[in-house]
Write a structure and sequence with these properties.
The complex is a heterodimer of chains A (389) and B (288). Chain A has 389 residues and is α/β, with parallel strands linked by helices. Chain A folds into two domains: 198 residues, Thiamin diphosphate (ThDP)-binding fold, Pyr/PP domains (Rossmann fold, 3-Layer(aba) Sandwich), CATH 3.40.50; 110 residues, 3-Layer(aba) Sandwich (Rossmann fold), CATH 3.40.50. Helix content of chain A is 40%, strand content 17%. Chain A contains 13 helices and 16 strands. In chain A, α2 packs parallel to α7, α4 runs parallel beside α5 and α10 packs across α13. Chain A is globular. The N and C termini of chain A lie far apart (53 Å). Chain B has a single domain, classed as Rossmann fold, CATH 3.40.50. Chain B contains eleven helices and seven strands. Chain B has a seven-stranded mixed β-sheet with strand order 2-1-3-4-6-5-7, sandwiched between helices. The longest helix of chain B is centred in the last third of the chain and has 17 residues. The relative contact order of chain B is 0.12. The chains are: A alpha/beta (389), B alpha/beta (288). At the A-B interface, α4 and α5 of A face α1, β1, β2, α5 and α7 of B.
Chain lengths: 389, 288
């Protein structure tokens, strides 16, 4: 392990030189953890997340982290993350699909407990019948607990989002957890080019006293609300305290947006802003959407892409502005419920322009041709379908 | 820091609540207190909303008076009766989610060890039979398997008292409770043996009939956890409401159970035994 020196967070995230490597998404996440000055990582196996936490275990063994262990199961892992972060440590874990749901009671309480942890979510099928493939329906379960939810398209995003999340989550005016989601296998097990910051530079350590809610470490008086539960007061006090606390968490979530602009170049990426028809997509589907835009260009069709990087906070204003003149809005997704289409519809006045689909689920791939069918429909083009058997 | 964070900044004494000033001036911080002095010093927990005659409330009171270093102690609890008193104490308290105490304590203790390698900071879980042996069973056991260095105290009232009197795994066989309309179908779980098998270095079982003994047990459990590994106390703290024990008979019931199945029991590894022999022989030289 090279000697790592602490550098300014803004320098590391925005200016430090980068070296190009050809690595998997799992490696990209672990490489980000390596540079994030993480104190403790807590692991529990599940396909396809395991790769990430194996690699994080390896970097702990090399000395990059101070503590690491394999927990008993996800509820235990996510609860221990809460304990470690309350004790003032910087903590990381990752999970997938059924593991996320098993840990969800703990994870969903992190924002309320003001736990600035970073969680990798490497998506896979949940629910029956069993499959381990990269369906991303699990992200929809994260959208209502107050945490920041980012969705990475590729290995580069995984690296950038993960590294920046440690800084964004610990900002005093944010101080809630961040989930960095990406599709299992398609991103975690496939290689892509990643421009990485130098291995010998790391983020400054967490300062747990720079916080809206102090750590519980017997160095500073604890926050009263943590020990003196409002449920023990009158019902009125209980309602009131819970209400204002949750309002503050959701306000914190929205305040993360300015840091998403600063460190991730904004919550959306727009390709061809003057397009007639837009593909709006996140994660892996955005990569396919990008291809669809290229196909369309070759055919002379004016199609654009809105890649949504931040699912929560959802970039309502940004999406609304870009899509204000869209003739049709195609939302390809890797799940059956269409959570992104719902978010887009809720954000724009012209919601009848949204074509909810194509959707693939159960972990199927999303061929560009499926998106192109919707593009042709939107332009009123009839194409003969050739089925090759 | 410990003592520093409980002390009042100079000049602020007259603005702080009287209770707090008393706590700092006449309380336990930075002092060795004999539990038999209860009533003669400002206690860490005084007011609580637990039922009249609750033996768990009494146990919690004695527990706080027994802490070797309250200014460097963090208590962790979960849903249940005990946290009603725990959260009112002048010791940092964490209330997480259902049955998560031993996982939260694992993360917390490790974080404190990373951040303060040269300081002693005690982490103590106090939770009920439901929290530790039913819903939190896996996390309780695994914290012991992993040899996490904190104390677990089970305040066993043999019922889910806080939710209205449902059967727990620690209820005695045959007892009729809510969710056990035909009586409990299986035996009380042997938590003490589980703790020994799972790797606790100090295990004790008691009915809280003797405050001096409670104090000694709590203190030993915390000190052994500080230096060696997981420790466990199984305390009988009856639910006088759900088991319909008249208030004036609560102590009598505890004495009966002490004779029956809660006789004082203490077990520790040889290493811990040697440690206490040394410590308790020369209390002035080896201060906790």
């Amino acid at each position: 392990m090279p000697e790592q020196r602490v550098v300014d967070a803004d320098y590391l995230l925005l200016e430090a030189p980068r070296e190009r490597k050809f690595i998997t998404g799992a490696q990209a996440m672990a490489e980000a953890v390596k540079r994030a000055n993480v104190d403790i990582a807590i692991a529990y196996p599940i396909t396809p997340q395991s790769e990430v936490m194996h690699l994080v275990g390896d970097i702990w063994a090399q000395g990059y982290l101070k503590d690491y262990y394999r927990a008993e199961e996800e509820y235990g892992a996510m609860s221990a993350i809460a304990g470690a972060v309350r004790g003032g440590a910087r903590a990381f874990s990752a999970t997938s699909g059924p593991g996320l749901l098993r840990g969800l009671e703990a994870i969903a309480s992190w924002p309320g407990h003001r736990i600035p942890a970073v969680l990798g979510v490497l998506t896979r099928v949940v629910n029956a019948p069993l499959s381990i493939q990269p369906d991303n329906v699990e992200i929809s379960y994260l959208l209502n607990c107050g945490m920041v939810v980012l969705h990475a398209e590729n290995q580069q995003d995984v690296f950038d989002f993960t590294l920046a999340s440690f800084i964004i989550s610990e900002k005093v005016d944010v101080y809630i957890p961040i989930a960095v989601c990406t599709e299992g296998f398609f991103v975690t097990h496939a290689k892509g080019y990643v421009n990485m910051t130098p291995e010998d530079m790391k983020l400054p350590p967490r300062d747990p006293y720079k916080a809206p809610v102090p750590p519980t470490d017997c160095e500073i008086p604890p926050a009263r609300i943590q020990r003196d539960a409002p449920v023990q007061k009158s019902n009125f006090m209980s309602y009131l305290i819970h209400a204002v606390w949750q309002q503050e968490i959701w306000a914190s979530n929205r305040r993360a947006m300015k840091y998403i602009y600063k460190y991730l170049g904004g919550p959306i990426e727009v390709v061809n802003p003057d397009a007639e028809v837009f593909v709006v997509a996140s994660g892996c589907a955005a990569a396919q959407g990008r291809e669809a835009v290229r196909y369309a260009q070759l055919e002379g069709l004016n199609v654009g892409l809105v890649k949504v990087k931040s699912i929560c906070p959802f970039p309502v204003n940004e999406v609304r502005q870009v899509l204000s003149k869209a003739k049709a809005i195609i939302v390809p997704e890797h799940n059956i419920v269409g959570w992104l289409a719902k978010e887009v519809k809720a954000a724009i006045p012209n919601s009848d322009a949204v074509i909810g689909g194509p959707r693939v689920y159960g972990g199927m791939t999303l061929p560009v041709e499926l998106i192109m069918e919707k593009v042709y429909d939107a332009f009123g083009i009839k194409k003969e379908k050739k089925v090759v058997v | 820091m410990g003592l520093e964070y409980v002390r009042i900044s100079p000049g602020f004494e007259k603005y702080m609540p009287k209770d707090y000033v008393d706590l700092v001036q006449y309380g336990q911080f930075g002092k060795e207190i004999d539990v038999q002095q209860l009533g003669q010093f400002k206690e860490l927990v005084e007011e609580h909303p637990m039922c009249a005659g609750c033996f768990m409330a009494y146990f919690v009171r004695v527990f706080y008076a027994s802490l070797p270093k309250p200014e460097d102690t963090i208590v962790i609890g979960t849903a249940g009766c005990a946290r009603l008193a725990l959260s009112q104490a002048a010791v940092p308290f964490i209330y997480g989610n259902y049955g998560d105490t031993n996982a939260v304590a694992s993360g917390l203790k490790r974080a404190l060890s990373i951040r303060f390698p040269d300081k002693e900071k005690d982490v103590v879980v106090i939770a009920g039979d439901g929290g530790l042996i039913d819903i939190g069973f896996g996390m309780t056991m695994h914290s012991w398997f992993r040899r996490e260095k904190f104390t677990t105290i089970m305040v066993d009232n043999e019922v889910y008292g806080n939710t209205g009197g449902q059967e727990s795994g620690m209820s005695p066989r045959g007892v009729q409770l809510k969710m056990a309309p035909k009586g409990k179908q299986f035996d009380k779980i042997n938590a003490v043996e589980l703790a020994k098998v799972a790797g606790c270095v100090y295990v004790a079982k008691l009915a809280p009939t003797n405050p001096k003994r409670i104090a000694k047990t709590v203190r030993r459990a915390i000190l052994a956890a500080r230096h060696f590994g997981p420790t466990f106390i199984h305390a009988y703290t009856s639910c006088n409401i759900e088991y319909s024990i008249p208030t004036e008979k609560v102590l009598e019931d505890a004495r009966k159970r002490e004779k029956q199945d809660f006789g004082f029991y203490e077990w520790m590894t040889d290493e811990v035994k040697e440690f206490f022999e040394e410590l308790e022989r020369k209390p002035e030289e080896v201060k906790a």
